[in-house]
Write the structure tokens for this entry.
Amino acid sequence: MTILILSDLHLGLPKAPGHDWMLETMHRAAKQGCTGLIFAGDVIDRRCISETTYGQFADLNAVAVQLFQQCLFVPGNHDAHVELSLPAEFIVAPDEFISLDFPDGTRVHTVGVSSDPDPRDVSDRMPSPSPNAPANLGILHTSLNGSYSKSECLPISLETLNSSGYDAWALGHVHQPIIESTHPPVRWVGMGNALVFDPETKLLQSLDQ
């Protein structure tokens, strides 16, 4: 059992992968054994808020709760501009760190963005890894040190993530699937890409890898 992680969907943006790509990706991941889903922020582009994009997101959510045993939504900076309504089956990350267990046993640690920009330093609020969980996964919608984004969003150092004791970090906000570290894995999901986390191998890799 594994967890599918998607981020920076930016529904409505012409260069974004779009609703149909999302549907196909979720169905493919479920067939490959993913039992959990995490949206790591920025589902609707703040410049493309409309009945159409709201409807597309609602459709994706309805499919998600049918395909996956557990679904988590982690707000990004674009989501601060959008009035999102999610199914009751979704867990929505607040603007303070939470830890929750997924069906595969993975302990997920995350915090949601509360504003755009969001310059808060949350590094001292990070939960300790659970020694009893088969794996600890961090999810953060972040600009890190700003090297790849001028939009400040929960800035944090790579050293802080590497020293957290978590087995992997999946990041949202930057649209390229950049790998920041391999031990432990720290990487941005990227727009038009999908990551899968396996608690047995501790690998965080692209869905089709």
